[in-house]
Amino acid sequence: MSIRxxxxxxxxxxxxxxxxxxxxxxxxxxxxxxLDAGASEVAVRLHAGGLELIEVSDDGxxxxxxxxxxxxxxxxxxxxxxxxxxxxxxxxxxxxxxPSIASVSHLxxxxxxxxxxxxxxxxxxxxxxxxxxxxxPPGTRIKVExxxxxxxxxxxxxxxxxxxxxxxxxxxxxxxxxxxxIGFSLDHDGRRxxxxxxxxxxxxxxxxxxxxxxxHGIGIDCERDGMRLTGVISLxxxxxxxxxxxxxxxxxxxxxxRLLVGALRGAYRDLIARDRxxxxxxxxxxxxxxxxxxxxxxxxxxRFRDPTAVRGLIVGGLRHALDEESQxxxxxxxxxxxxxxxxxxxxxxxLNRQPSPSPAPAFAQxxxxxxxxxxxxxxxxxxxxxxxEPVPTFPLGVARGQVAATYIxxxxxxGLVIVDQHAAHERLVLERMRAMREGENVARQAxxxxxVVEMDEPDCDRLEGAASELGGMGLEVERxxxxxxxxxxxxxxxxxxDVPGLLSDLAAEIAELGGPLSLRDKLDxxxxxxxxxxxxxxxxxxxxxEMNALLREMEVTPRSGQCNHGRPTWVKLGHAEIEKLFxxx
Length: 585
Ligand SMILES: Nc1ncnc2c1ncn2[C@@H]1O[C@H](COP(=O)(O)OP(=O)(O)OP(=O)(O)O)[C@@H](O)[C@H]1O
Ligand SMILES: [Mg+2]
Known about the structure:
8-stranded mixed beta sheet
């Protein structure tokens, strides 16, 4: 075996493998350098998603020619004056971004100090190919052309210019949110995409996030143990199929940290379906000594000294805000419900027309058209109650009947309320179980004859392993041979239930949650699965008394405005909207 020192070009190429994954990561490094250089304006130009050209210009400190040469060398940085790597506040500190990028592209670095003339250095795949004077305003301009052109192994993994452009846009958005005090512009293929003036963080976030968050967002501001969390999150009913609009920052550094993403998820547990994702921009500020940013070459992950405290702050803070919002909405007007119900869209759907181009946001129309269509399509299994009694002032009104054996129609003082009975009941069962669990007193119902359920061995192992937690929720299970489970009692809140179905769902649930979730999170997921089994199904005819009981319970139950999957459990059609439907207004 012969050991040799690698040549610098190769070392840079290897580093580039970690730091420069695609155009967006090179772009991120360049913009971070501009911000570290004290720029107040950063201009980005891209061609073909950054594959042909990434150019970043700033009005920051600039460099003299010697500094420029040094900047292109590995492990050369101006950012750790006292070698205090545990107290870094700059984006960069590793001194490897520029040489890494220069090793896999054609890079032109131009820079000018305030008091001097400009200089230019051109580098092709680590080799300096030219130097000379350059004309530019004070600051720095870096051009990266033909990234990975000579690195076929990398090129293979690049996506289309469109996809690369999307990733670049995302990188710029993240940094622009992190530093709202800086002006940014972005051009792609000669077209101006973004112009952002310096402003405050909330205004910057509002400019860059889904604008629907004005109405579907909740502001966050909480503090604990010297840490502070601020930002905005979406109501559970306003969610997305992909987690692409989650912007997380630690001490102003954009991160994609698993702990933080997990905590965000945890806060929405059972408010949102597992394949749906909230929108969020969250800024976490922690004392510098409590976080290590030097754990990932691209600096997108961090390590906290006390991860449990961080998780606690995020889950606790967001949950509190979500709960407050939902309490408010049940007592008065559900924030999301009125938009879910858009009169024009419903009217168009009923008449089988294209929706008029009027105000409803696309999301509201989709939900409404589908629901309305269903009301009209299904055979009317409605029963009516004569509206003789005066309407008492219950927020969700008095049940008047049931439609399609699925929806309860109620009359409230200010309009017509439609409730999805299954979704609502599922939520109530979950909240009941949770309340009981919190009081450590889950009512259980012993089975007259213990039930033996045959299951495969891994599933039996899973249930056996969770037996004591399940017992705490009123579900008593015991191992009964290698491939069977004996069930002695079920939670009373469930009523009569399909025990084998419940067990197999639970086993699947436990298998899926096997990872790093806390016990509490797991219990909540399991409780949600149990709740679904205990709920009145769509399609069951309810008596008026049953319907009213359900409405009254919803009014006093926290979070009852959304089902366990984040859809609304009820919508209200106000008198004014009904009048509009009939052209009276
Ligand atoms: N736009 C810029 N304006 C002024 N100086 C710059 C600029 N870009 C880079 N530099 C200088 O070049 C040095 C090297 O940059 P490079 O990005 O390679 O390393 P870094 O930012 O120090 O650390 P990291 O590798 O973590 O980003 C920086 O420390 C800085 O002094
Ligand atoms: Mg850098």
